[in-house]
Amino acid sequence: MRAEWIIESLLRAAALASASVSVLIFAFMAYLGYPLVEKGQLGNLFTRPWLPDQGLYGIYPMIVGTLWIASLALLFGFPLSLGYAALIQLTTDRKNAFSRFLRKVAEIMTGIPTVVYGFVGIFLLVPFIRRWLGGGSGMCILSAALLLAVVISPTMILFFTDSFARVPREHLRAVDALGGRPAQKLLYVVLPRSLRGIGCGLVLAFGRAMGDTLIALMVAGNAVAVPGSVSDSARTLTAHIALVTAADFDSLEFRTLFACGLVLYFMTTLTVTTVGVLGRRGEARRP
Amino acid sequence: MRKSIRNVKWILPVMVVLTAFFIAGPLQAGDLDAFRDLSGTLKISGGTAHIPVIKEAAKRIMRLAPKIRITIAGGGSGVGIKQVGEGLVDIGNSGRKPTPEEIAKYNLTLFKWAVDGVAAVVNPRNPVRSLTAQQLRDIFAGRIDNWKAVGGPDRKIDLYTRDKASGTRAVFWKKALAKGSISPKANFVISNGAMKAAVAGDPGAIGYVSVGYIDDSVAPVALDGVAPTLATVKNGCYPVARGLYSNTRGEPRGLTRAFIDYLFSAEGQRIAADKGFIPVR
Lengths: 287, 281
Hints:
heterodimer; A: mainly alpha; MetI-like fold; two-stranded antiparallel ribbon; B: D-Maltodextrin-Binding Protein, domain 2; D-Maltodextrin-Binding Protein, domain 2; 2 domains; two-stranded parallel ribbon; disordered N terminus
């Protein structure tokens, strides 16, 4: 009884510690970013361009860049991942080895460091995009989004596969009994039953795309202008933080990094909350 | 069995050669003698222009004295100054002279062991080899955005620049662009090496690198008729030049001191010259 109490309080302490870390990080960023509010820069922050030489530290271009790149990556990655997961699901029944192989590949892909993708991107994708667009540097939103799509796909694939696997076997057998083909089974039973899982996978992948630093830093070009098209060079919030960290600690320029951190923090919180809400609703609906 | 015998026969001469190398290495070392009895870790970071020289020096030192570990990181001059000031590294390199505030704040000791030019570079396929200072400023400010306007092909100009931590940027901005603006549309790369790779791959590119980094993959651009070469940088005709500094917090001691001394030794200065910089001695 006593041992149980000790274990329980130990676990509680561990949980509290890890939860307080994220709260503390938030407080830390808010505290260090506060001088911006004091100096009346907060409004400028979200509307003005980034021109440190003229005392303008707007991060609006980076917010736009982040959203562009993450959304496009999702747009490219989603159909691919859905197809991949569907293939795993379709082959599960007949040839087990093949679907296991597919799943293994996706699992391995999650483990590859993004810098490897970035490196490959610089030497293969960027020149290709440059030729394809017929000009420009090739370092642009499109390149970064294509590469990020590859990075976030495994997350989606595994998430989708798991939610497909949660569809009750009886339903699948019923389709077989009715003489339904595998494609019909997928389209009319598996997909509608896993909509929530697909939603969660999408939101998580979006979060991952927003949080990635290296891909954008290496292939998006990092220009500070607001991007007007997918062939423009753009900078993400994460890449911006990586590029400006060398600025003087006491400068306003450095302070704005905390604003970037806060924006990222809010975006991530929003993502996680969405997943939570989606997941809970999914459970409630399932009797 | 037979196979393993053959293997042994093959391995023996290789071992002899390798041993010869290891013995020969220390034998020819003169300026490296100071490291023979030293051990420990030396952390270096900062300016990316310095890296080829620092790397070669570290390689020679570690080959002679295996107990010494030298780690080399980039980051840019700003990072180098900041990290050495905060005691994160032993030597912080900078491709610009640290500001008086930085020197006072961190109690830095500066060692300028080479001089380096910063040259505008274009892709070798681009025929433009010479620009006036005004043209260069207009190009980087975004006022000229096609190579046609400066005698090149009808192609959009892709600008490449470095982040604020870069000493190369600081010098180029001050001495070549006369502190003019740099277009917000410019792409940012994170090191001299990345700049070279980017310009080498993009036919419409213009960027700037340390003269030590120039090879066949990029073409240097003459500024007001003066080509950026070792000779013109040395005699002062090419104005965009800077010292390469290695900075320490306070007076360097032990391994750090030995490393700095080595950079100033005949051998160290020869490495600097080999890598395309102008030795100070």
